[in-house]
Amino acid sequence: MVKHPNGKEYPLVSFVTPTFNSSHYIEDSLKSILTQEYPKEKIEIVWADGGSTDNTLELAKKFGVKLVKNKLILGDPGFAVGGEVAKGEFVVFMGHDNQLVQKDWIKRMLKPFIDDQEIAAAYPHLDNKDTDSWMTKYVNRFTDPGNHFVYGYANNPLTFGKVYKTLKKAKGWVVYDFQLKNHPILEFEQGFMLRKSAYHRAKSTYYCGIMAVIDMIRLKKQFAYVPSASNYHETLDGGLKQFISKHRWAIDYQLDKRETFGMYKDKFGLKGRMRYISWYRRLRMYLYPFYGVSIVFPVLRALFMYLKDGDGEWFYHPLITFASAFTIWQEAFRIKVLGQSPIMERYS
Question: Is the pTM of this model over 0.90?
Answer without folding.
Answer: yes
